[in-house]
TrEMBL record:
Record function comment: Key component of the ribosome quality control system (RQC), a ribosome-associated complex that mediates the extraction of incompletely synthesized nascent chains from stalled ribosomes and their subsequent degradation. RqcH recruits Ala-charged tRNA, and with RqcP directs the elongation of stalled nascent chains on 50S ribosomal subunits, leading to non-templated C-terminal alanine extensions (Ala tail). The Ala tail promotes nascent chain degradation. RqcP is associated with the translocation-like movement of the peptidyl-tRNA from the A-site into the P-site.
A Pfam cross-reference name: S4
UniProt protein name: RQC P-site tRNA stabilizing factor
Gene: rqcP
GO molecular function terms noted in the UniProt entry: ribosomal large subunit binding; rRNA binding; tRNA binding
Species of the source: Xylocopilactobacillus apis
Recorded family membership: Belongs to the RqcP family.
Length: 82
């Protein structure tokens, strides 16, 4: 699954276009490497998202193409937030 779609479906970012812009600006990392919007996400990957002054680290637990709102929290595990 593409990183921009994962972030939108998991509701870490509200809109896919915003996720794409963040990724293309180099503010999203997968396993410590800068990710572009088309980068592939796999189970057990570690994602770091830089929102301005906030940094969120999550681990991918599940990939679900069409997750409902209550299922979206099951797609990732929050590792840290600062």
């Amino acid at each position: 699954m593409r990183i921009d779609k994962f972030l939108k479906v998991s509701r870490l970012i509200k809109r896919r276009t915003v996720a794409k812009e963040l990724a293309d600006a180099g503010r999203i990392e997968i396993n410590g490497r800068v990710a572009k919007s088309g980068s592939t996400v796999n189970v057990n990957d570690k994602i770091t998202i830089h929102y301005g002054s906030r940094v969120i680290n999550v681990a991918v637990v599940n990939l679900n193409e069409n997750a409902k709102k209550d299922q979206s929290k099951e797609m990732y595990e929050l590792l840290s937030e600062s």
